[in-house]
Design goal:
The chain has a domain at 176-364: 3-Layer(aba) Sandwich (Rossmann fold). It is of the alpha/beta class. The chain has helices at residues 2-26, 39-58, 75-83, 94-101, 113-121, 168-174, 176-179, 181-187, 199-208, 225-234, 249-255, 291-304, 320-332, 349-354, and strands at 215-219, 237-241, 259-261, 276-281, 305-319, 337-345, 356-364. The chain has 14 helices and 7 strands. The chain has a 7-stranded mixed β-sheet. The protein is globular. Residues 1-18 form the signal peptide.
């Protein structure tokens, strides 16, 4: 009997202590801090909020379509957003976008090439359409070159207002790499080092592999010399992507009778899947491009190349260690056949200082991918 009474007292005491502990925990004035929200979730939340704000501002519901648009948003921007998509990156630069769309409809467009380039280079591409008339040179050339390698390009085919140079002769003196057409032409036809791949050798390699070359894209092709050589020598049609950064590259390409594509490197190529025989990455494609942009670009190259088509990487430069650990494996993910893979030291002052190298590579896409 006494033992049972002692056990009963122990049980009651234990329960009382448990209740006291629970009550002190619930009533504690210093509760544990909440679990912090990860940064990536906060960024996603901000993106969702921005998207909702955009939809409510630029795609009003049917009940509010009769309301007057906000004075801060150009009327034509609202109209365009209802009939066509606007690139998501445009909304990251609303002030620039509003300036671009703030014009008088059915009149002459503002002369704002710098504004357009800034928007495009920041990912706002394609730009919204505008209902205005584009400016043209005041005295257009009376005749256009009939050859892809004219002795000179007509200065009157360009609006020079935004450029420090006011003629192609000036550009040739100050930027011979881009505007001395003959100098760049010779560099594509001669073999002076292991980095070179003359066009004759490339076309012979393609012929030996029974892979005809008819259509292609030259990424960052400057004034279009590669496209001009391919057209003149082999009747191959090349599209040249280029931007008017400090010089009228697009006009130069067009004046040579070639097709310029005014698109940035981060833009999806405006051609259909599996239609290109060749994609060449010129010197504009280098280590200064963000890695994620480069990765998406290479996979878009794969999208447009047909089976058996070629990716030509011409003098890509980076630090030697980065080529080995980053860019080489990135290109290797494509699973292409290495027809040529040549690496050599970059011997200019910058290359020597930073341990940089050049890569020239010719890669062939597998004929079939399932």
């Amino acid at each position: 009997m006494g033992l049972n009474f002692v056990l009963l007292l122990v049980m009651v005491a234990t329960n009382i202590l448990s209740l006291y502990h629970l009550s002190s925990t619930v009533q504690s004035p210093n509760p544990p801090p909440p679990v912090p929200v990860p940064d990536h979730l906060l960024r996603q939340l901000n993106t969702i909020r921005a998207t909702i704000n955009h939809l409510t501002r630029h795609n009003p519901s049917s009940s509010s379509t009769t309301a007057e648009p906000s004075s801060a948003v150009p009327r034509d921007l609202i109209l365009h957003s209802q009939i066509g998509p606007i690139a998501s990156s445009c909304h990251n630069h609303p002030d620039l976008l509003h300036r671009y769309m703030n014009y008088t409809p059915f009149s002459t467009c503002p002369y704002d090439p710098d504004l357009q380039e800034t928007l495009i280079l920041n990912g706002c591409h394609p730009l919204p359409r505008r209902r205005c008339f584009s400016r043209t040179p005041s005295k257009p050339p009376s005749s256009l070159p009939l050859t892809h390698f004219p002795t000179s390009l007509p200065d009157s085919g360009v609006i020079w207002n935004k450029y420090s140079c006011k003629s192609f002769a000036c550009l040739s003196q100050n930027n011979p790499t881009g505007f001395d057409l003959n100098a760049q032409r010779s560099s594509l036809q001669k073999y002076t080092s292991e980095l070179d791949l003359p066009l004759t050798q490339f076309m012979q390699l393609a012929k030996s592999a029974n892979s005809p070359i008819r259509l292609g894209i030259d990424i960052g092709g400057g004034t279009g010399t590669f496209a001009a050589l391919m057209k003149k020598s082999y009747n191959v049609t090349m599209l040249t992507t280029t931007m008017n950064v400090n010089a009228p590259y697009n006009e130069a390409v067009a004046l040579r009778g070639l097709v310029p594509l005014h698109v940035p490197l981060q833009q999806r190529f405006p051609v259909f899947d599996g239609t290109m025989d060749l994609v060449r990455c010129g010197r504009a494609v280098n280590r200064w491009i963000p890695l994620s942009v480069m990765e998406f670009m290479f996979y878009d190259v794969d999208r447009v190349l047909r089976g058996g088509g070629y990716l030509w990487v011409d003098r890509f430069f980076s630090k030697a260690v980065d080529l080995e650990k980053i860019y080489g494996p990135l290109i290797g993910k494509l699973g292409y056949k290495k027809v040529k893979w040549a690496v050599a030291n970059k011997t200019d002052p910058s290359g020597l200082k930073h341990g940089e190298v050049y890569l020239s590579a010719l890669l062939q896409k597998p004929v079939s991918k399932s």
